[in-house]
Amino acid sequence: MIIVRCALVSILMILPLFSLHLSAHEDNGNHNKFRRLIQELPTPNTFRTASGAPGKDYFQQRADYRIIVELDEQKKHIVGSEEITYHNNSAETLQYLWLQLEQNIRAQASDAQMTATVSMRGRLNFKKLNKLHQTFDGGFKIEFVRDGENRNLHFSINKTMMRIDLPAALPAGEKMTLRIAWWYNLNDRVLLPGRSGFEYFPEEDNAIYTIAQFFPRMAVYNEIEGWQTKQFLGEGEFALNFGDYYVEITVPADHIVAATGALQNPAQVLSQRWQKRLQQARKSDKPVLIITEKEARMAEKNHATEKKTWIFTAKNVRDFAFASSRKFIWDAMGVQFGDRSVLAMSFYPKEGNPIWGKNATKVVAHTLKTYSQYTFDYPYPIAQVVHSQNIGMEYPMICFAGGRPAREHLSAKTMQTMISVIIHEIGHNYFPMIVNSDERQWAWMDEGINSFLQYRSEQAWQKNYPSRRGPAYSILEYMKSDKSILTPVMTNAESLFDFGMNAYAKPAAAFKILRENIIGPQQFDFALREYTRRWKFKHPTPADFFRTMEDASGMDLDWFWRGWFFTTDYVDLAITGARLYKIHFPGSDAAITGTAQSAAQRWVAKQTNDGQNAEPAFPLTLLDGSRFTGKIEHLNLQGQKHWRENNFYYELTFANEGGLVMPLVIRFAFVDGGSQTINIPAEIWRRDHRSVTKVFVLPRKVTSITLDPDFQMADVDMSNNYWPRTRTQIQRYKSQPSADTGAKPHAQKQ
Q1: Nearest Cα to 676, choosing from 696, 655, 652?
Q2: What angle, rounded to 10 degrees, do the helices at 521-535 and 361-374 form?
Q3: What whole-number distance in Å separates Cα of residue 575 and Cα of residue 486?
Q4: Contact 451, 469 (CB under 8 A)
Q5: What tens digit of pLDDT does each residue of 394-417 get?
Q6: What is the percent of the chain where pLDDT is above 90?
Q7: DSSP-assigned states of every residue in 431-479
Q8: Which helix (H) or strand (E) holds 158?
Q9: How many CB atoms lie within 10 A of CB 115?
């Protein structure tokens, strides 16, 4: 009893301390960098499996469109009507339908305008100030909403969304028809920047019209969120359904129209000469001019009062956009995929020459070839780019791109801008036009993956192409920024502090690191192709991507997704200590003893007279090898050889200063001028993510050690990546490239 009472008293005395210890940590939970992504990812189910593939009950809705639209050049507005056939492929009965009205972002007192912030202090440009004086009458003007029998349906507009109340519920597996008529005013994109509108050329009273989000579109309904009803505020782009489109576009008779889909009535809208050239282009592996600059200049001088209607059809696309102008020069070429030819095309004004005529269509073709190599063969019949200033936006089979040369001179940077923006926007045909992620929620799923593949395509276009995004050094300044102004990649698109870095650059660099330094090119490429195979023409989520990449690569990457996508941790790995050990064999084995002792003596003498270091860079410790002698005799000849090689044992300590666990890439420089690079997986941090110690057995004397020698890991502070930290090594660190200059280090690998 006495012993029990004493033990009880002891327990009672330490309980407060134990409770205090728990309270200091219990609110923070499990901090291990390798804990599972159970809480962050949804539970697998019959819709979306644990492997990342669509499940047996996966479904997606469908919306087919017949649209009649007219561009009124005099009034600068769009008038249209549409017939939507909506297919309810879910197992649910729908009482109402939701549609997106993105043009309402330009309506007076829209959420986007009311929540926009600007300061009069600091740098203030005209565009920002002009927003304060905004009187543009934007937004859809809905004329009517009816069913297939032309009966009026009750509808309610909530900012950029419209709900249609059904008189009778739409059962699972059934479809219904909606008929909607509308019009809206077109914005001048110089005065009111945006994804669509017109670029005006006052000297000739002409314009280039880039028209998108021009019709009410069905919102997405799925098993994850039900209806996707997040309001459009400007950054988060679009969540859309696949369907077939038939579109009639009426424009001034002297306009040329580029649009999603294949032109159905060329004989009614193109001269015989242009039709003949277009047929030649289909069979050519080089650009053929359909409309020459001379012909475009002639068209600019007149303004037709007559009209023409262009008819386009598109199968299994998620959206539709078009461009119209009398200014267009037009060239095209064929791109072969087996026995199928895809028509690559460019439409651009004379202001885009000479660079657009020289390279634009070639870049379109190059992008189709490289992206198809990385993912799947391009499935559509058309891929085209339309040039208008200060824009970069993508739609199925068509994109709008800037990159205009100055009239005074042509710079290499302008050419690179054009090439990069075309690759990026044409690349969006794959993400998200076909691998159809929800841009309104997760911008990185299309922008980040696409920016990574853009980098690869740019490097395939030209060796050492000056890519803005992809290499690790491009995100250094961002990664080491004050965390109060950082957001995790897994943040809704409308809430990102730095959209370009967070949605584009950081995930692009992450994927490059993942491919080249963690998974390996072969396994990464296989996994990415598997992801695109599983999810083309479907709606993947982040979890589907994460799980597929792990499933197909055969690697546990929870630590990587968490660090790069769910946190604002950064990479700052350091060498914090280094020590040399030599094994000393006294007594019986004189040869080993003499070699070890003399080597040790020479080593110590060298270190203490190094000149740059008051203390030895690698303090030496001799270990007594006598206790191993008897055991060595029992080894085979190969094993004995290892012990007689007079190895150097380097004990290194590494610290994780930035919180983001990463592989250790260590380069040892030897006294004879040679070097050796050792790659250690990130799992070395699995038991202690703050500090680890490892011993390296090396056959030669080491003069210096470098961590991440080729600047591949986005390490924000390389000054602690060297041992010893001599003046030479610090100077090398200072010569690192920065995200601002875009310069590459001499050791950077492409």
Answers
A1: 696
A2: 100
A3: 27
A4: yes
A5: 999 999 999 999 876 678 889 999
A6: 75
A7: TTTTB---TTT-THHHHHHHHHHHHHHHHHHSTT---SSSSGGGGHHHH
A8: strand 154-158
A9: 10
H or E stretch covering 523: helix 521-535
Q: Which two tokens stand for residue 183?
A: 């019009």
- At 429 the three-state DSSP class reads coil
Cα separation, 602 vs 616, whole angstroms = 13
Q: Is pLDDT above 80 for 21?
A: no
Cα 508 from Cα 510, distance rounded (Å)? 5
Report how far residue 711's alpha carbon sits from residue 473's, in angstroms, rounded to the nearest whole number. 7
* Amino acid of residue 156: S
Domains along the chain with CATH numbers = 32-57+442-568 (no CATH), 59-116+126-241 (2.60.40), 573-734 (no CATH)
Q: Are 84 and 65 spatial neighbours (Cβ–Cβ below 8 Å)?
A: yes
- Please work out, in degrees rounded to the nearest 5, the angle formed at the alpha carbon of residue 133 by the alpha carbons of 127 and 134: 85
∠ at Cα 725 (719, 728), nearest 5°?
90
Tokens 């009966």: give the residue: 151
The beta strands (E) that lie in 681-729 are given as 691-698, 702-707, 722-723
Q: In angstroms, what CA-CA distances link 534 with 219, 260, 442, 547? A: 23, 24, 19, 12
**Alpha carbons within 13 A on the beta-carbon side of 164:** 29
> Which residues are paired to 154 by β-bridges?
165
pLDDT by residue (tens digit) across 537-593? 999 999 999 999 999 999 999 999 999 999 999 999 999 999 999 887 664 343 434
Length of the chain: 750
Paired sense of beta strands 340-348 and 382-387, if any: parallel
pLDDT band at residue 646, thresholds of 50, 70 and 90?
A: confident
| Helices H / strands E in the chain, number of each | 20, 31
pTM for the model stands at 0.89
**Per-residue confidence (pLDDT) for residue 128, from 0 to 100:** 63
